[in-house]
Amino acid sequence: MLILDSIQTLACGGLFLLVGYAIRRHVPLLMRFSIPAPVIGGLLVALFMLACRHWDVTPIRFDTAWQQPLMIAFFTGIGFNASASLLKVGGRQILLFLALASVLAVVQNLLGIAMAKAFGLPPLFGVITGSVTLTGGPATGMAFAPLFEKVGVHGAQSVALANAMAGIVLGSIFGSPIAAMLIERHGLRPASATTAGADTPAPMAATAPEQRTVDPAYGGLKSLVYMLLAMGIGAWIGDGLGRLGVTLPSYIGAMLVGAIIRNIDDRLGWFGLSTRAMELIGNTALSLFLVVALMDLHLWDLAGLALPLLANLAVQSILVLAFCCWPLLQLMGRDYDAAVMASGFTGFMLGTTANAVACMSSLTERYGPAPRAFLVAPVVGAFLIDFTNAIIITGFVNAWH
């Protein structure tokens, strides 16, 4: 048996991450459904390990020590992107859209718990197949999986992956048709053709201007140092809350510290943060985290759970689509932009923000631009919902554990 240490495991993950990108480029269906490259590469290894298990062979053992810090780095990057100035751009629309998404995340968990009980499964199984993996996507699912394992959900990582991946596919399938149906049924059209070209997702464009430096490497280094600082302080916060008996995922403290630093910088300009550098570091950490986590995934843990997962996904999909028809369409203005937002809402409440943007783009190519939708939906789906969803998940874990 080949035993890889943490660095070798990370290197192997990086290699299969590149393989995932290569496969996605050559398989249009994977690109169409916005399947993340790390998931493709990591699943190849997981499927190989599953096949080897059939013959009672364990060819490789991974040391996933880097998985935790990479996951925390990604969510810290989300914290650094949570600028209060973004809320001023979309104002009431962003807050309302976030509130609707948060309410639905709660309902997803309640519905998941009901479905889990119907199949004789632990209530928290319904939470991990609810907002953890549908609203949160694969990153949140894999991040929370160890916590759910500790509180009694066997095979939580495998369940999280399966549910998140199915959600991504369903979000891609349903996102555009539900909005097209609303547009045609209510005769909705773009308010003006003069906004053409404004329908590109630009949540980060609304952030505070970056501080430019002469040496580009210095900006990246500074961003990395601030991220590590936030992770270190966040670890102290997490330890303190843990001693008080509060169950929180390990990244919450770092994400909050990152958000505080970001908003201080927006207001006072003390740190000169680079949004692009933070995004690059966070996205790189996410890709490596996912591929390493998936390589060590035990897919055999899914045996016997296919029917509960499929039944839950069917009911959850109906819930999201019904929510888009009413009340989301009504409360967001019952106009063309609201219908396009419904498409994005379906995309990220079942899958990821990438699904949301892809669904909205296909609609605007057909019907015309929807600038308000492309401001509101990506801002909420990209990071604001991660804050409220983490609070919701933590509340359910503490209530049902």
Automatic annotation (TrEMBL):
It is a multi-pass membrane protein. Pfam families: Glt_symporter. It comes from the Bacteria. InterPro entries: GltS (IPR004445). The chain crosses the membrane at residues 6-23, 30-50, 70-87, 94-118, 124-148, 160-183, 217-237, 281-300, 307-329, 341-361, 373-397. It is found in: Cell inner membrane. Its main location: membrane. Keywords: Amino-acid transport, Cell inner membrane, Cell membrane, Ion transport, Membrane, Sodium, Sodium transport, Symport, Transmembrane, Transmembrane helix, Transport. Catalyzes the sodium-dependent transport of glutamate. NCBIfam families: gltS (TIGR00210). HAMAP family: GltS (MF_02062). Belongs to the glutamate:Na(+) symporter (ESS) (TC 2.A.27) family. This is Sodium/glutamate symporter. It comes from Rhodanobacter humi.
